[in-house]
Amino acid sequence: MRSVPMWARAYILCVTLAGASCAVSALGPHTPWPAVALLAVLYAGCEHEALLDRLAGRTGAAARRRAPRGPGTLFPVLLAGVFLLPPAAAALVAVPGALLARADRRPRWVRRVWRAAQLALASWTSARLYAALGGPAATAAPDFPYVLGPAGAAVLAFACVLTVLDGGILATAERVPARTAWRGLFARSLAPVAVHGLAGLMMAVLWTSPYGPPAALLVLLPMGVSCWAFAQYHHERAAHQATIRALVQAVDLKDRYTRGHSERVGRASVLIAEELGMDDDRVEVLRFAGILHDVGKLGVPTRLLRKDGPLTPEERRVIELHPEYGHEMVRGIGFLGEAREAILHHHERIDGTGYPYGLAGRQIPESARVVAVADAFDAMTSTRSYSRARPVAVALEELDRCAGAHFDPVMVAALTRALDRHGWHPGVTSDLPGRVPDQLGDQRGNVPPELPAPSASGPAAR
């Protein structure tokens, strides 16, 4: 508790007391305890972190490293309580599950109490509004579409309370500036709460029907399947990201001179792909292609990558094997798709003077033509030990001058339009004093690799 700032302690205490007062008022003879108990047990069991980790295929350390989940995985149960129970009883539903849930960060008991109070207040507020708008009678009828009005208002109230309380904890405990603490919170919470609210309303309607609670519980079956599929997707995506990250880190360790280059090429590749109207899956693959385009450097002797002086023809031929090395390294990684072709062919040129196979024009895969332009653009706009970064406008002029010979004009034009719209924010530069120029583009030791030269240098020869 000592790690919690004083203002955060006071804020958490006030919210906890408010949540407790809402829940304690349910302790009376008129509370429908069987329904409260069933919903509370259901919420606690389904929300339990260990169960969610097993559903996602995570155990042990993998469970502790999982990505943060979105708010309220089992909000349908809480919102069903809002639509079925008196406000105070609805506030009780979330308390056992929140208090029993696992907290990965300390102070754990403070986090559990905070979550219980937050959900109790959100449930109580939305249930009060739902009752004031005549929702319970419409649910029992059921009276469609009239019931959708009170239900929608309750969902909005639920999301608003979560937003207000979350922003407060960010401002007091995380010291986020008050002017930005609440920014974007409501928009992020409304969508999942609205979807779960519809499921909760379906549960409430079936609960009050002649079929009773067993029929209402069936609503959770497709919800559980969708949560499992969503968790599996994120688990697989996290594994993909970890694979990419490990490969990029290995390249950076071997050739630290290009630190950050891979990420920037991936970012520029995404800009081009989106400008060309590619679907999201292809955009993601091209991002991978940009990030991994130089992974073949792992197969190149370090002494050649760091050689101080011009390369011999034999040494240049060895380094020019790095696209083929990279292709072999990622051949078995199925999720990369056409990114493998981009890794192999990103040094090919439209006029056929590139390597490794001297492909020309449309023989070069589209993904490779995208990455070639992104690679050359970052080479020209990054600060190196032997040359300062060129302005974006100058780099684009150079790309345009080489379009049709070295680069696909369509890709150059797409990057130009994208940068006009979004700008360029490189973030990381490879400004490491004392390192020598990239030998692929500087045989003489004094010409930046982005300048075209007869000896196969130029923006793409890196």
TrEMBL record:
Residues 258-380 form the HD domain. Coiled coil: none annotated. SMART domains: HDc (SM00471). Keywords: Membrane, Signal, Transmembrane, Transmembrane helix. The keyword Signal applies. InterPro entries: Cyclic_di-GMP/3'3'-cGAMP_PDE (IPR052020), HD/PDEase_dom (IPR003607), HD_domain (IPR006674), HD_GYP_dom (IPR037522), HDIG_dom (IPR006675). CDD domains: HDc. Residues 426-462 are annotated as: Disordered. Residues 236-431 form the HD-GYP domain. Residues 1-26 form the signal peptide. It comes from the Bacteria. The chain crosses the membrane at residues 74-101, 113-131, 151-173, 185-207, 213-231. This is Metal-dependent phosphohydrolase.
